[in-house]
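User: Sequence recovery, please. Input:
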């Protein structure tokens, strides 16, 4: 892909699932990758994997709900790697619970991670990009944010919010040289999805049922996403901003 070599990119949630696959693909494309994640053990392993394959991957143990911690980690990344140019906001979390069975503490946790987390990242990173006149951002939402998802009311609200936020930022920042787009995954076989299997009364059968409902007849895998994310961060996508692209085997089809 054009224009990724030597670019400096931060990937949140890069220690697992879609974020891990994205971080390793971007390292393979020649980017200098900063993995921002809560999980120090798996985050360190991702950095080791990327570096032993000849890439340049740095790990930072960061909670994206903590704006001050993000500011410090971005400072540390820029000291080691140089000015951040690309950002992939991948970190996220949910558990399926019918809305009427949830409480305020659960809403707060979901909103902190899935909405405040990306807002914090934008507030710190996009400010620097806008000042320098260049930046590309991919926000990972979910098809839940486009069409809803039973048991995921608050999460869907956050992901729909991320889609609207991205469009607004794309308009506000177009003249500052910053483009922003959204990738919306469908159900994907990651540790996050294991929580859904565990919470479902039918266990693993939820995966079989979803696979039948997906036109391409299977769940997503982490490696289904890095191609689209890398494309949207590359020079090939320089004229694309404010768009949402579902990568979900055809589960949702938007005009
Ligand atoms: N798996 C799915 O079915 C699915 C479907 C649609 C959208 N998504 C979205 O894709 C993204 C990646 O999900 P995944 O399935 O790869 O999940 P995952 O659980 O495999 O990985 C999520 C990563 O985010 C990190 N993380 C969570 N909270 C954090 C915080 N506060 N600060 C820093 N890091 C934090 C975790 O430590 C983990 O490494 C998420 O935004 C998720 O909402 C996933």
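Assistant: Recovered sequence (255 residues):
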């Amino acid at each position: 892909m054009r224009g990724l070599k030597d670019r400096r990119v931060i990937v949140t949630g890069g220690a697992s699932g879609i974020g891990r696959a994205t971080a390793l693909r971007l390292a393979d494309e020649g980017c200098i990758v900063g993995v921002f994640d809560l999980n120090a053990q798996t985050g360190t392993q991702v950095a080791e994997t990327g570096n032993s394959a000849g890439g340049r991957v740095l790990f930072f143990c960061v909670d994206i709900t903590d704006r001050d911690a993000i500011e410090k980690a971005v400072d540390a990344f820029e000291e080691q790697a140089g000015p951040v140019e690309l950002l992939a906001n991948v970190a996220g979390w949910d558990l399926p619970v019918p809305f009427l069975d949830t409480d305020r503490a659960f809403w707060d946790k979901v909103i902190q991670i899935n909405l405040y987390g990306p807002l914090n990242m934008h507030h710190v990173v996009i400010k620097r990009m806008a000042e320098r006149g260049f930046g590309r951002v991919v926000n990972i939402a979910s098809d839940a944010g486009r069409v809803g998802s039973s048991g995921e009311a608050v999460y869907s609200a956050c992901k729909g919010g991320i889609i609207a936020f991205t469009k607004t930022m794309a308009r506000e920042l177009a003249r500052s040289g910053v483009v922003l787009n959204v990738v919306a995954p469908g159900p994907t076989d990651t540790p996050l999805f294991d929580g859904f299997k565990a919470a479902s009364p039918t266990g693993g059968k939820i995966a079989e049922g979803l696979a039948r409902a997906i036109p391409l007849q299977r769940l997503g895998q982490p490696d289904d996403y890095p191609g689209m994310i890398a494309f949207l961060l590359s020079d090939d996508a320089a004229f694309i901003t404010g768009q949402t692209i579902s990568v979900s085997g055809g589960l949702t089809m938007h005009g």
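The mean pLDDT is 96.
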